[in-house]
């Protein structure tokens, strides 16, 4: 039996010994250690800063004891505005990545965006006409990302309050106009009398 083996692993040594061959040890190559990174170089390679996004309209209201309360919008005009800015000068915003959800429902299509802000209603006209946007707190979540994929999220509460009363009907509008004309004519007549009669 030929026992010419290069013994480079502990398992190979065990097999050769079990086969009854005399052992010839060979030097094993040491495993190279990873090159250490100096702490100063590791600190210089900071990750990209995420962009900034904030709900600016309605603004949160400062309360007692340093607390804040949700800003409010009227139910008949529930428009909110978000502002955003890039986190890094060389990592611009991708405004197409802007999305917004109200109580978990996607409302992105209702919003208009520019390079620095986005605005839109919490519900579409049909939902508002049906009164589907109830008065009370609603969760509004918006997100925007940079071109390199760094994202930021604003998660806010918005208070919807009852809007103005319904506009007056045509009949009541005509009544208001007649009343205003009567008052104007009466004031004009009174002024004319004062001028003509000393």
Please provide a written account of the structure.
The chain is of the alpha+beta class. Among the domains are: 1-27, no CATH class; 52-161, Immunoglobulin-like (Sandwich). Helices cover 24% and strands 31% of the residues. The protein has four helices and eleven strands, in the order ααβββββββββαββα. It has helices at residues 10-18, 39-44, 125-129, 170-196; strands at 52-57, 61-62, 68-69, 71-74, 79-85, 93-102, 105-106, 112-113, 117-121, 136-146, 151-161. It has a five-stranded mixed β-sheet with strand order 4-11-10-6-7, with no helix packed on it. Strands 1-5-9-8 form a four-stranded antiparallel β-sheet, with no helix packed on it. Strands 2-3 form a two-stranded antiparallel sheet. β10 and β11 form a beta hairpin. The radius of gyration is 37 Å and the shape is elongated. The termini are far apart.
Which key phrases capture this entry?
198 residues, four-stranded antiparallel beta sheet, single chain, alpha+beta, Immunoglobulin-like
Our estimate of the beta-strand percent is 25-35%
Low-confidence stretches: 165-169
* Estimated radius of gyration: 37 Å
Question: Going across the major beta sheet, what is the strand order?
Answer: 4-11-10-6-7
The level 1 CATH classification of the domain at 52-161 is Mainly Beta
Question: How would you classify the helix and strand content by structural class?
Answer: alpha+beta
Number of helices: 4
As a percent range, the share of helical residues equals 10-25%
Calculate the mean pLDDT score and round it.
78
Tell me the span between the first and last alpha carbons.
147 Å
Largest sheet: 5 strands, mixed
CATH architecture of the domain at 52-161: Sandwich
- CATH T-level topology of the domain at 52-161: Immunoglobulin-like
Shape call: elongated
Order of helices and strands: HHEEEEEEEEEHEEH
Number of strands: 11
